[in-house]
Amino acid sequence: MTQVRSLRRRVELGLIVLATIIVASAYGLAGLGATASLPADIMAFLGLVLALLVGAHIAVRRLAPNADGLLLPMAGLLNGIGYVFVARLDPELAAPQTTWMALGVVAFVVTLFVVRRPRDLERYRYTFLLIGIGLLLVPFVPGIGYSNQGATIWARIGPISFQPGEFAKLALTIFFAGYLVERRELLAVSTFRVGPLMLPDPKHLGPLLLAWTGALGIMVFQNELGSSLLLFTVFLVLVWVATERLSYLVLGGLLFAGGAAAAVTQFGHVGRRIEAWLDPWGDPDVTRDSAYQVVQAAYAMAHGGLTGTGIGLGNPGVIPVVTTDMIFAAIGEELGLVGATAVLIAFLLFVGAGLRTAVAAEQPFEKLLATGLSTLIAIQAFIIIGGVIRVLPLTGIALPFVAYGGSSLLANWVVLALLLRISDDVTTRQLRQMEGEAVGVR
Amino acid sequence: MNRQIRRLALGLMLCYVVLFAQLNNVQVFGAERLRDNPDNNREIVANYSRPRGTISTADGVVVARSVEVDTDLLRQREYPEGELFAQVSGFYSFHFGATGVEDSYDEELAGETSDLELRNLSDLFVERDRSGSVVLSIRSDVQQVARDALGEREGSVVALDVETGEVLALWSYPSYDPNLVSAPDLEEAAAARDLYLLDERDPMLGRAYQQRYFPGSTFKIVTSVAGLESGLVTTDSPSYDAVASWTPPLTTRPISNNGDVCGGTLFEILRVSCNSAFAEMGSLTLGPQVLLEGAESVGFNSAPPIDLPVPAVSVFPESFGDALETPGSDTVDPDQPGTIFEDTPSLALSSIGGFDVRASPLHMALITAGIANNGRLPEPHVVREIRDADGALVRTIEPEVWLSGMSPATAATMREAMIGVVESGTGTGARIPGYVVGGKTGTARVTNDPPQSHAWMVAFAGPPGETPQVAVAVVVLAQPGATETGGGRVAAPIARAVLERALQPAPVPEAVDPNAPDGEVPADGTGDDAGAAPQASTAGRRR
């Protein structure tokens, strides 16, 4: 048991050191590219990144010693690369992003410390539902909520602005997992058939319709295509995994497509986004800002080509909101196809590790939660990257761990902590079992 | 549930494969198309952000330079002298492209020519500033005199070195401030540009070389050259009748001498700019073919090969209709002098620079330079040298002959005739004590009600007993009045002032600090040395 543990932690530490070297090299190159000299604070920066990641690593050693060894280094790598780009694109954001990164690690440690067993979360599923809905509504509270760039997803308390939706996604994912564990058997019973689809009792379809309505509500009232798509997808995936019934996936997909189609025709802003996606070089009056963004992103990435311009040597500043929504375009320009693919692979490895944990888990809640959290990260990254490179309509959600933004960063570090917590729980139990069996044989 | 999770993993994997495929499409396979999209200005951004050399005058005044700025574009073009050299340097705008020298020497300024890219073998390995600097042949003192002499009258002044073709001054009023048009802020730049474009006087047009006007009586030197070269005109014959006006065949509209009575041989009719005599010379003594060939031999109907973008082509009509009759002959012989053509009245007007004849001020200066330079019209150029970022000479623009427009004998005759114009004819306003000056005035009527004319003066000057050194062309547009004195009264003094200044030695070029190609002020901000404080030093010179 200690062998597995120490191996996983040694791999983790090794990967963290590797990630730190990569991030520090990128930081140094960014400085060289922009000013032809090494940044004066390179050693301080190197130390800081290493300290944060090693701190997180020590917390894992103490609090979740059997957890997967790949998750933390991947998150650290993505966060570090993101930091280098944020600092390179807008030096004024470097200090706040550093703070958020540090707070993210603190939130990570606190989460590991507070949530000792995943089932603690399951117990509070309805509390999380209320928290989730509450957070989604915060932007509409007068005096606190406000709109920015068309999306009503912001809240401001005192000097601090944040996107409550980032935490709402997390709370709702926890709720979905807990709720579905409770109801999965009921939902899995098919009572009637429509064509090739086996459908459950209509009265159990309620939650599906509720989630659908909620997702459409977000899309319409908050002007947030991305978040509604993200939440509804995570919900559908969890219903499908929990009930093992494909009909939910198909039905949900149809529902969402229908709702989206209605929104496109009924609400101008959604329609414009779709037009900008289909033909960004078309009528600029119709497509407006989002078309300009994706067009500039495409030029930036084409400019970068296979190997990129080098960090600090490109000109990603011409892309609007490049530090947040469009940061992947900046990475594509300056690191090229090679660097952009590396980011994709880092996400795949992270999500793969999360789903491996889900498969290994025996407790349904752990399984569903690990699946939900992994899907959350995977789909969020897919939606925004897809938006930037025109696989999907552009939506204003953050690239997990990479984009500038405190709420997103904090929420993602908590997601990471929960995944590690589940992974630790699962492995510990397996190891105990193996130990028991070994003892039994003897 | 594990089956679903594995399928989910596969599904997510597929999503990322789609991303990867599209990424390949954007960054590699479809990248060329995106890069070539006309809407894509990234190339321009990249060029704009790169180091770019200075443009300075022959006497070391910085006309254009790049300054580092804290924007996405990194650098911004600055024109310390404002409008004074705007029509030579042009502008280099992120939004509107480049004009003038900024355009025609773009590769040198950006350091993209092979002689700038590879100065030493070590350049293969070492990154350095490869931008080239352009040294103009324009002299700031001559340019300033041209500007002061023309004042706030619409018009152009061109001064040339007659032998090398180096342009010493190229000024037009109104001009514009290239700083405003080159502003990195689109709205600011567009507002300035719109203002200039709405101005019907078109201040951004380099009218000294990009616009053409009725040359009026200055064209009489071309008619004279055509006559002398063809042998149909000599200094002794023909001698035209002294008349107040002359009516060409096929028309009833007389060509008048503005109330004077004049006539005689070449020197006399040129001296007083006799319309009736030159109209008859061009239309009947020479005929369309001889006049056209004469005009084309001094560059009409082709563009002067100046090193600036889009020079205007001076035009002379290529046809005056069919031959109708040859007086004193039963047959019609178009080559026979005196033959009457369908458009002979137009030919008569063309002979004195009217009808459809148009010439740019630059071109008239070149013809004058050709006469001064024994018949050889030089290739005009505004740039003298290219230097590298360290100030070392890369390339000198060598003088070339554009056209051997006339024989040395014809040129010598014309010089003599034109010296007569300045000594005792219509061009006395251009006389410079201690120098030999020759020239020709012109007054080209543009409207009758009220009468307005372009006042012209072309002239050359040099020390006595030597070949003339400098040629000028001056046009002042739409001046009130229509008498032949317009050119002498209005344009001749400007020509004189510019010639006088250009005959003086050029000011000694200031040492340009090679370490300040981007116009950086030293860290302490005092900037005592000349290279770092060109604004201060020019202000001093301008007094």
Automatic annotation (TrEMBL), chain A:
<dbReference type="GO" id="GO:0015648">
    <property type="term" value="F:lipid-linked peptidoglycan transporter activity"/>
</dbReference>
<feature type="transmembrane region" description="Helical">
    <location>
        <begin position="401"/>
        <end position="422"/>
    </location>
</feature>
<feature type="transmembrane region" description="Helical">
    <location>
        <begin position="368"/>
        <end position="389"/>
    </location>
</feature>
<feature type="transmembrane region" description="Helical">
    <location>
        <begin position="248"/>
        <end position="268"/>
    </location>
</feature>
<feature type="transmembrane region" description="Helical">
    <location>
        <begin position="98"/>
        <end position="115"/>
    </location>
</feature>
<dbReference type="GO" id="GO:0051301">
    <property type="term" value="P:cell division"/>
</dbReference>
<feature type="transmembrane region" description="Helical">
    <location>
        <begin position="12"/>
        <end position="30"/>
    </location>
</feature>
<feature type="transmembrane region" description="Helical">
    <location>
        <begin position="335"/>
        <end position="356"/>
    </location>
</feature>
<dbReference type="GO" id="GO:0032153">
    <property type="term" value="C:cell division site"/>
</dbReference>
<dbReference type="Pfam" id="PF01098">
    <property type="entry name" value="FTSW_RODA_SPOVE"/>
</dbReference>
<feature type="transmembrane region" description="Helical">
    <location>
        <begin position="67"/>
        <end position="86"/>
    </location>
</feature>
<dbReference type="InterPro" id="IPR001182">
    <property type="entry name" value="FtsW/RodA"/>
</dbReference>
<feature type="transmembrane region" description="Helical">
    <location>
        <begin position="227"/>
        <end position="243"/>
    </location>
</feature>
<protein>
    <submittedName>
        <fullName>FtsW/RodA/SpoVE family cell cycle protein</fullName>
    </submittedName>
</protein>
<keyword id="KW-0812">Transmembrane</keyword>
<feature type="transmembrane region" description="Helical">
    <location>
        <begin position="127"/>
        <end position="147"/>
    </location>
</feature>
<keyword id="KW-0472">Membrane</keyword>
<keyword id="KW-0133">Cell shape</keyword>
<dbReference type="GO" id="GO:0005886">
    <property type="term" value="C:plasma membrane"/>
</dbReference>
<feature type="transmembrane region" description="Helical">
    <location>
        <begin position="42"/>
        <end position="60"/>
    </location>
</feature>
<dbReference type="GO" id="GO:0008360">
    <property type="term" value="P:regulation of cell shape"/>
</dbReference>
<keyword id="KW-1133">Transmembrane helix</keyword>
Automatic annotation (TrEMBL), chain B:
<dbReference type="Pfam" id="PF00905">
    <property type="entry name" value="Transpeptidase"/>
</dbReference>
<feature type="compositionally biased region" description="Low complexity">
    <location>
        <begin position="523"/>
        <end position="533"/>
    </location>
</feature>
<dbReference type="InterPro" id="IPR054120">
    <property type="entry name" value="PBPA_dimer"/>
</dbReference>
<dbReference type="InterPro" id="IPR012338">
    <property type="entry name" value="Beta-lactam/transpept-like"/>
</dbReference>
<dbReference type="InterPro" id="IPR001460">
    <property type="entry name" value="PCN-bd_Tpept"/>
</dbReference>
<dbReference type="GO" id="GO:0005886">
    <property type="term" value="C:plasma membrane"/>
</dbReference>
<feature type="domain" description="Penicillin-binding protein transpeptidase">
    <location>
        <begin position="155"/>
        <end position="500"/>
    </location>
</feature>
<protein>
    <submittedName>
        <fullName>Penicillin-binding protein 2</fullName>
    </submittedName>
</protein>
<dbReference type="GO" id="GO:0008658">
    <property type="term" value="F:penicillin binding"/>
</dbReference>
<feature type="region of interest" description="Disordered">
    <location>
        <begin position="504"/>
        <end position="543"/>
    </location>
</feature>
<dbReference type="GO" id="GO:0071555">
    <property type="term" value="P:cell wall organization"/>
</dbReference>
<dbReference type="GO" id="GO:0071972">
    <property type="term" value="F:peptidoglycan L,D-transpeptidase activity"/>
</dbReference>
<dbReference type="Pfam" id="PF21922">
    <property type="entry name" value="PBP_dimer_2"/>
</dbReference>
<dbReference type="InterPro" id="IPR050515">
    <property type="entry name" value="Beta-lactam/transpept"/>
</dbReference>
<feature type="domain" description="Penicillin binding protein A dimerisation">
    <location>
        <begin position="52"/>
        <end position="135"/>
    </location>
</feature>
